[in-house]
Amino acid sequence: MSARQGGRRRTRGGAARPDRSSGQLPEPIGVFRNPLPPVELLDATDLNRLIDAAFRVLQESGLEFLSVRCLDILEKNGCKVDRETGIARMDRATVEHFVGRAPETFTVHARNPDRNTIMGGNYINFNTVGSPPNINDLDHGRRPGTYQALVDLIKLNHSLGVCHTMGGSVVEPMDLPVPTRHLDNAYAILKYTDRPAFVRTVSEFRAKDAIEMVAIARGVSLDRLRTECSLLTSFNVNSPRRVDEELLEGLLCFGEYGQAVAITPFTLAGAMSPVTVAGSLVQQTAEALSVIALSQMANPGAPVLFGGFTSNVDMKTGAPAFGTPEYVKAVLIGGQIARHFKLPYRSSNVNASNCVDAQSTYESAMSLWAVIMGHANIVHHGLGWLEGGLSASMEKCVIDAEMIRQWVAALAPMDLSDEALGVDAIAGVEPGGHFFGEAHTLDRFETAFYQPMVSDWRNFETWEEAGAINATQRANVIWKQMLEAYEEPPMDEAVDEGLQDFMKRRKHELKDVQP
Amino acid sequence: MSARQGGRRRTRGGAARPDRSSGQLPEPIGVFRNPLPPVELLDATDLNRLIDAAFRVLQESGLEFLSVRCLDILEKNGCKVDRETGIARMDRATVEHFVGRAPETFTVHARNPDRNTIMGGNYINFNTVGSPPNINDLDHGRRPGTYQALVDLIKLNHSLGVCHTMGGSVVEPMDLPVPTRHLDNAYAILKYTDRPAFVRTVSEFRAKDAIEMVAIARGVSLDRLRTECSLLTSFNVNSPRRVDEELLEGLLCFGEYGQAVAITPFTLAGAMSPVTVAGSLVQQTAEALSVIALSQMANPGAPVLFGGFTSNVDMKTGAPAFGTPEYVKAVLIGGQIARHFKLPYRSSNVNASNCVDAQSTYESAMSLWAVIMGHANIVHHGLGWLEGGLSASMEKCVIDAEMIRQWVAALAPMDLSDEALGVDAIAGVEPGGHFFGEAHTLDRFETAFYQPMVSDWRNFETWEEAGAINATQRANVIWKQMLEAYEEPPMDEAVDEGLQDFMKRRKHELKDVQP
Questions:
Q1: Quick check: B245 contacting A, CB < 8 Å?
Q2: pLDDT averaged over chain B?
Q3: Which portions of chain B are predicted below pLDDT 70?
Q4: How far apart are CA B3 and CA B8, in angstroms?
Q5: SS3 letters for A59-103?
Q6: ipTM of the complex
Q7: Which of A87, A358, A420 sits opposite B278 (nearest CB)?
Q8: What is the pTM of this model?
Q9: A429 contacts in chain B (CB < 8 Å)
Q10: Chain B from 71 to 110: CB within 8 A of any A CB
Q11: Chain A, 294-353: which have a CB under 8 Å from a chain B CB?
Q12: A441 pLDDT higher than 80
């Protein structure tokens, strides 16, 4: 097994610059833990006021569950269910009791055990962009997603070495039939990368298909899968206060098989939730906790994440905005709430720009500091999101990978040995001299510093003579080189056949399903 | 006095979107304090190891001071001076004693008292870019700086409402004679903005000229100026371990008149300091502390800042790199060292890109989180830096202003009143409904959210039809609108005449000075 395959942890942030022209890919970042304490935007009093308000919402207003089966479960476990409206109200003690059954930390298993990862604590995991209907790159512009684009995005993200999990679907393959598209999606993620899979789980049959496929890919039984979480999904509450039947089916199925669900209200302040950040967080908390409680009533101990997706709309136009100051506040406080309930936390790397420019970069940079310093355990849409999620961008994947790698390097431990402190090295250079030729320098320079993929540090004249290529244009060159250099992670032929046989059978069974 | 002139503190991050087409400028951000504790990258043990090493450098190797007057001062105050080499060595107790005389916090006075600001504590002040030889904008590309470009940069930054101090010079007016350029520089800063002035102080005569001019601008005597710091400057140590005579002259002159100096070693790891971040910080600390001690020997209590400018070079080419992971580490630890010695802290918002693209944005974004979360009391080069400081960019000023405003809004206090928590507002919207028409929304929507200058949140189709203009192109439009809308802060005619008379006299006196 090569060092790259081994998922070796990079501790110095100083891997050699990848020579992509010779097909060399950057070393994967491996496990990423944030050694700094999370940023706490609210003090305990304010945090408790916010949480109290969320419990008032659950007690007084409740949520509408569009599932008789779920209403039965809720009623059986002490919630007040109104069968006419489908609304379930629940008291604080009940919710706290069931939320307390969810695990604080859990492992997600990959088909390559070296890629297993942990959700919880100070583990920060990055996932690819998920579910945009469009693909975007500088060569072909923006167009509907295809299966080929999906595969390219998986290969690129695999090569970029930054994702801890992948999928969900990375771009929607609009050229495939809706009833069976989830099978191709799951296959592509299981085949072209060896990271744990993030999948979509609308409806029970889709959830179950993904579960069966990951069991085949890992070569384990469904019984063993129940004790080894191997799939992640995100579940959006239809905010405000409504939960759709197809999603609830997926939730229960995933819980039954021990797979993880990030329960994520979609609370755009001013549209689907109150216009205040505080009010949106109250609603987010109420919605997430009630569905988490339901998940634990149905399947005690099932792995879940407290999901946050609170941002705001442009009140002039109603357009969604992302990576804003309000988003930063919501991400940081969302993390506080998740930790209060000892739940792993899901957040996102977002922006609302229509192209890969300064705006997409500063909105993503604001998102990234919030999710990393807010200790989001999984950062969905970590790479490639554009246009508020309506496009997956090849160039943005590269820029996001660069930004994430810089964060990982900035938070990597520092060498504070006597040699690194360098008192003697300093003494050895005369005043006004330089350190270029010193042994202390020569012994270390190859790995001393973070080596970027995208940044161009040449002087202006050299850069201009070489065509004045900007970072987005360089990212365009890089993703093509990376697709060239992509190496498919090994998969037993029998496993591949098993996956293909399963897909073939299910496609036949599902051929008459209405989308 | 209008609300804008009043320097009113914005507490909700929700000022109305500036309608620049009608000449309305955004409200200045006012005083900015970071309510979050600073990020501490090192624990106490490691921090002390680093500081111990810095004192070893001062004891064993010392610094070369290219000034007989300074060597006299150092010797008289207990340092071991080698007259042949010009090297002064100093023990820890001496350095700590004199560094302890520097003020922990001080006020900087503006000609408009509403613009006075504070250096120290959790006050974060932004200054313009300083000293690049080139100006850069999308219309005319990159070309040598001129006096007109300098004035435009000051006017733009005044209008952007983000700078707490300005100058230094914002761009070098290469069309003016070197011996008297500092006079035009100081005049432009005192005339076209009412923020405290940042000036350059190479040589005693330049320092003294700036002091006399700010006294005229403020209408106060030199005696009163001694007790009211009204100027800032930055002083670069000629790292490693050498301090030039002209800078020392400026330092002593500024100290004598009670004006503030940010003592800033220029420690590019691998070039002017050891290739390790730890070693560069050791050298930075040794150099800064020794010059600060000297400043206090000469003028006890003179305002100074502990300056950090540790970054790294690209070890393949020797080119300087900025906004890197190593830069982030150095900024955060630099802040820890400054706080250890109870000194205000100076840092910078930097990048090494040659154009206003994703690279310039992510390098600046990494710098900004480090300087803001590291509690830098003044962020020199806060707006407009490009190419590692070789250009001042009009578009970058606008992008940086946008990023800084977003940080200020993200860290602004949050409304957690019962009304903001919105339990009743949530109850009032049916499941699956929306909040657009609710009274709770309508009462608040105009000021609920941060309103960006540059970000475009329209959908892809509308954006594409409107020409697919990226953020840098939008910034180009904005700076021209802002120059149009610029309003000169009022200055008494007599004061203006006083400044012009002083310049005229000094230009005559200096006409034969060799540059």
A1: no
A2: 94
A3: 1-23, 514-515
A4: 7
A5: HHCCEEECCHHHHHHHHHCCCEEECCCCEEECCHHHHHHHHCCCC
A6: 0.95
A7: A420
A8: 0.95
A9: 240-241
A10: 87
A11: 312, 314-321, 324-326, 328-329, 352-353
A12: yes
